[in-house]
């Protein structure tokens, strides 16, 4: 529901209340209502006043909307804390114990006209105009049918993952005993979902599924399973995967993961950590002030029926999807933007954007975090209408903390000079800047 429709609803409610109040006033105090007409006139003046305010707010919102892409409204998903301060409500269950839910994931419809040759990656461009960069959770509701996105970059992701599983699977894929049932449940969910959603790529079999493109067969019934179930899951999708398990302290711990194409972080550094430490150990900007409470509450409240997504973006100054070696070797004790070469030519600048989803598995209660990375040369996305101007504005809006986190000092000058030039070319070509909202709304 938009803010505008919410306002219209509120306005209708006020009008209804005024009429009701008038009627009940006349009914209760017929003698004290001096004249029916004068009370009615008061009500009419009040209604006119409410309508005038509504008109002003509507005009203001519309003028803002044409100048700026919309922002997803997610206040209900991002409530910071319970009314009892920081004490989490138990919600009628013991922390760390999940009573299995009856919820069954709905069978998805096939993705329209999907093919491994022709379906292009969705063009996520989740950056907003300045002047201010707001750190928020940025969650939006999504449907189960949209859980996993596959496209014609699948062959590259499949090959990179297979190679990295061979070379460093023991570092990138892990499942703790407490998370094993959840990892098996995730494998079962994918085995049901993928053949229904992408029937030209996957076929359901009596024991699992077949990949019709790679000719791999997966038997998920055999025990013991031939490999860590989360590693098998990783072979099936383009996403990296993590499972968070609630412990009796009500915190969520990273206890299973297949993190093969992360770019900037390593599963071995974060494995076993609770949600807060995962983020504070990486100096995520404004985590304590803006994100922590909302995130912890969100995890405790998440139901199997719900699913959410969020998008982010980074710049990278090398072309490696799996690991951005510019910030250091993947096996170095410490990695940092300070080691990256400064001012590399713009041909080496890559746009990296993650589309993340969160859902709770109904049987085990584990929370599955999917991280699908979209990866393109900056020179490619800067050809798209509005993108160079909006990205330049977004990069300029980063505060010192966000700039440090995203490594701006290493590439900012080269990048901004290039984006400004491309934006100028688009304006000179006649790009109508006032139509951006119509053409590309967030997160596109
Ligand atoms: C409501 C859910 C979550 C929110 C709102 C959130 C938010 C964030 C934000 C704002 C960042 C900074 C980069 C960015 O802009 O995305 C970040 C980084 C990160 N998040 Fe999350 N996150 C969530 C869940 C998770 C989960 C479940 C994991 C488990 C693996 C996770 C792992 C990480 C890691 C590893 C980083 C990089 C940290 C580093 O740079 O060392 N996040 N997160």
Short structural description:
This protein has 444 residues and is an alpha+beta fold.
Radius of gyration: 26 Å
Whole-number tally of structural domains: 2
Q: What is the subunit organization of this protein?
A: single chain
Q: How does the overall form come out from the CA principal axes?
A: globular
Strand content: 5-15%
| Bound ligands, named by name, code or SMILES | protoporphyrin IX containing FE
Task: Find the structural class using helix and strand composition.
Answer: alpha+beta
The biggest beta sheet reads: 7 strands, antiparallel
Helix percentage: 25-40%
Total of DSSP H or I helical runs spanning 4+ residues? 13
Strand order of the largest sheet: 1-8-9-10-6-7-2
The ordered string of helix (H) and strand (E) elements is HHEHEHEEEHEEHHHEEEHHHHH
Per DSSP E runs of 2 or more residues, the count of β-strands stands at 10
> Regions with pLDDT < 50 over 5+ consecutive residues?
1-34, 57-73, 81-85
Output mean pLDDT. 87
End-to-end separation: 19 Å
How would you describe the overall organization of this protein?
The protein is of the alpha+beta class and 444 residues long. The chain folds into 2 domains: 3-67; 140-439, no CATH class. It contains 13 helices and 10 strands. The strands form 2 sheets. Strands 1-8-9-10-6-7-2 form a 7-stranded antiparallel sheet. It has a 3-stranded antiparallel sheet with strand order 3-4-5, covered by helices on one side. It binds protoporphyrin IX containing FE.
